[in-house]
């Protein structure tokens, strides 16, 4: 059974729909990567899953349970987590407080999860008493991912985690994503560094105009001459 | 020496009293702005309302023949705070929440809160009339006089019992608020939502709960501030409406959305006001002895006449907005 499944999802921000029937399905063992031109509706797809905009048609199921139009405070306890592209840390709060906010929905002891996050991002342990707003872009991205991991998600959704990062950090973030996936967390991410991301994706989705254009394994998409020509810059 | 005592009584004590009241009011305004992003104009009237709730409860206590060592207005305060918090929640649910749900802009909410101002004042006048009342009609207001004759002063330092209680209560509430915001899960969630409401929602924070907590804190602190003001001066339907502007100035000067800023801003505005209307001749009078023949200090030497006290808050506000628009602490205002 798919961990997350979107069936012909239609949705938008009140006006004309932005998503005109998006289909996505991934397993918990998968790294799913959504690529596509600017304005294709990639971010909108993630927001639709997370209840941040109105889904007008189609269904979204998570682990067999329909979650269409559920709000984050219901979704996070079910095992979904989302790292938005921008403004994804609480700048006035310390790194540790940011992580604590990720665990808001948990009532159990989350110190072991925090230890796990610090193990994943050792630099955050060093900086844990610093306001997140004082960190570099790459470190902020780690705080954002750490925050999202604090709820112990089964599915981690990331919107352009490598945006604005130096090449060295891009590789580091991608490696960490693969590592997180290796620890049993399903990944669904949007990426502009399409070729690089599809290289480690077990599932790839090319979106254009709010619709699927191509779907396959990452390698299949990279190998497809039409995908390469139209969406991966040759 | 007497001049110094006069200064202590008129500036230090009065300024601290006023500062406590401004600070408690401004904390509510700043928290509401941080969480709900609108200027809650009716906050002064929530203070007045809180004072009237305490007044009624004190009356109930008195008519039951219960005599307490502390002023009854203080004894009933915890219950009054609870009632004020419940009413604040009710006001939000009936007036502001429906507007928020329709995605109303901050200015719409501001205008709605002006409506709430008129409504609260109307209800108070309907029930209590427009006259002035006192908490101390049937009990005496104790005044502590600290004898300073050992220092060669004839005047004592004098401070009333409600004033002393107010210092203690304000200090306790500020410490409690600090611990809440920095130690508790909900307090941190409140800061998170003020920092970045969208991300707070995405993190699964129960934002509706945070909004309710905000009203509980703002409403109960407003009740304390209003009651303290009424205990210090008198109780009337426009009690706090008259000081809502300096309170807003305090919140803005401190940095909107920033609780500690509101406290600093409250004391800053209060001391600026007290110092500005203080008659410096009273302190400088000894200079008359050394001034040349024919020159004497004028009988009244204050920077601002008392009736123009409000302008002080405005001047500080304008300077802040020109020089440092985000306030002393970096607030959410732009
Ligand atoms: N909050 C919003 N309200 C209204 N329209 C929006 C909103 N956010 C995005 N849109 C519109 O929806 C469309 C798809 O936007 P989306 O952000 O999903 O694109 P994207 O595929 O993520 O592109 P990019 O690569 O630029 O991030 C765009 O036309 C955009 O203008
Ligand atoms: Mg996007």
Automatic annotation (TrEMBL), chain A:
SUPFAM superfamilies documented for this protein: P-loop containing nucleoside triphosphate hydrolases
GO MF: ATP binding
Record flagged with keyword Nucleotide-binding: yes
Pfam families (alphabetical): ABC_tran
CDD domains, alphabetized: ABC_TM1139_LivF_branched
PANTHER family: HIGH-AFFINITY BRANCHED-CHAIN AMINO ACID TRANSPORT ATP-BINDING PROTEIN LIVF (PTHR43820:SF4)
Similarity remark: Belongs to the ABC transporter superfamily.
Keywords: Amino-acid transport, ATP-binding, Nucleotide-binding, Transport
Domain ABC transporter, first and last residues per copy: 4-234
Claim: Transport is one of the keywords in the record: yes
First and last residue of the signal peptide: none
Protein name listed in UniProt: ABC transporter ATP-binding protein
Organism: Devosia nitrariae
UniProtKB/TrEMBL annotation, chain B:
Keywords recorded for this protein, A-Z: Amino-acid transport, Cell inner membrane, Cell membrane, Membrane, Transmembrane, Transmembrane helix, Transport
InterPro entries in UniProt: ABC_transp_permease (IPR001851), BCAA_transport_permease (IPR052157)
Residues annotated as signal peptide: none
Transmembrane segments: 12-36, 48-68, 74-95, 107-128, 164-181, 209-233, 239-256, 263-283, 303-323
CDD domains, per database record: TM_PBP1_LivH_like
Entry membrane topology: Multi-pass membrane protein
Highest rank taxon of the organism: Bacteria
One Pfam short name: BPD_transp_2
Compartments where located: Cell membrane
Family: Belongs to the binding-protein-dependent transport system permease family. LivHM subfamily.
Name of protein: Branched-chain amino acid ABC transporter permease
Phylogenetic classification of the source organism: Bacteria, Pseudomonadati, Pseudomonadota, Alphaproteobacteria, Hyphomicrobiales
């Amino acid at each position: 059974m798919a961990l997350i499944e979107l069936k012909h999802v239609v949705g938008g921000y009140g006006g004309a729909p932005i998503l005109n029937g998006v289909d996505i399905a991934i397993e918990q063992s998968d790294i799913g990567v959504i690529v596509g031109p600017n304005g294709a509706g990639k971010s909108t797809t993630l927001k639709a899953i997370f209840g941040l905009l109105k889904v007008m048609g189609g269904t979204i199921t998570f682990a067999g349970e329909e979650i269409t139009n559920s709000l984050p405070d219901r979704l996070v306890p079910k095992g979904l987590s989302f790292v938005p592209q921008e403004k994804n840390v609480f700048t006035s709060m310390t790194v540790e407080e940011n992580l604590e906010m990720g665990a808001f929905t948990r009532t159990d002891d989350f110190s072991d999860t925090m230890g796990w996050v610090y193990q994943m991002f050792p630099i955050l342990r060093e900086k844990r008493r610093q306001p997140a707003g004082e960190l570099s872009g790459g470190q902020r991205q780690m705080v954002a991912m750490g925050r999202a991991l604090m709820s112990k998600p089964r599915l981690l959704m990331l919107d352009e985690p490598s945006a604005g990062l130096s090449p060295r950090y891009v590789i580091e973030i991608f490696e960490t994503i693969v590592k997180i996936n290796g620890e049993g967390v399903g990944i669904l991410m949007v990426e502009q560094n399409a070729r690089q991301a599809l290289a480690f994706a077990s599932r790839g989705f090319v979106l254009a105009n709010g619709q699927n254009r191509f779907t396959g394994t990452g390698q299949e998409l990279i190998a497809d001459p039409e995908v390469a020509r139209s969406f991966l810059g040759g | 020496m007497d001049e110094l005592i006069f200064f202590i009584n008129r500036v230090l004590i009065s300024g601290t009293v006023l500062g406590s009241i401004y600070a408690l009011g401004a904390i509510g305004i700043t928290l509401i702005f941080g969480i709900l992003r609108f200027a809650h104009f009716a906050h002064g009237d929530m203070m007045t309302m809180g004072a009237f709730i305490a007044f009624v409860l004190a009356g109930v206590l008195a008519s039951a023949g219960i005599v307490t060592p502390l002023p009854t207005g203080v004894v009933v305060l915890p219950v009054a705070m609870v009632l004020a918090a419940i009413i604040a929640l009710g006001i939000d649910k009936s007036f502001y929440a429906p507007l928020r749900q329709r995605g109303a802009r901050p200015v719409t909410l501001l205008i709605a809160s002006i409506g709430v101002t008129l409504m609260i004042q109307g209800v108070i006048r309907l029930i209590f009339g427009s006259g002035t009342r006192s908490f101390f009609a049937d009990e005496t207001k104790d005044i502590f006089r600290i004898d300073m004759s050992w220092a060669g002063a004839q005047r004592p330092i004098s401070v009333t019992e409600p004033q002393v209680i107010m210092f203690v209560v304000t200090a306790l509430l500020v410490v409690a608020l600090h611990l809440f915001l920095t130690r508790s899960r909900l307090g941190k969630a409140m800061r998170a939502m003020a920092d970045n409401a969208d991300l707070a929602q995405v993190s699964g924070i129960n934002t509706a709960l945070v909004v309710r907590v905000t009203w509980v804190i703002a409403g109960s602190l407003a009740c304390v501030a209003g009651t303290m003001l009424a205990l210090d001066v008198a109780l009337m339907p426009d009690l706090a409406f008259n000081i809502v502007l300096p309170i807003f100035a305090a919140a803005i000067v401190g940095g909107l959305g920033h609780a500690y800023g509101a406290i600093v801003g409250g004391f800053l505005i209060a001391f600026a006001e007290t110092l500005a209307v203080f008659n410096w001749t009273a302190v400088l009078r000894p200079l008359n002895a050394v001034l040349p023949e024919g020159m004497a200090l004028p009988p009244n030497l204050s920077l601002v006449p008392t009736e123009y006290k409000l302008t002080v808050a405005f001047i500080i506000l304008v300077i802040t907005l020109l020089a440092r628009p985000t306030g002393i602490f970096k607030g959410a205002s732009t």
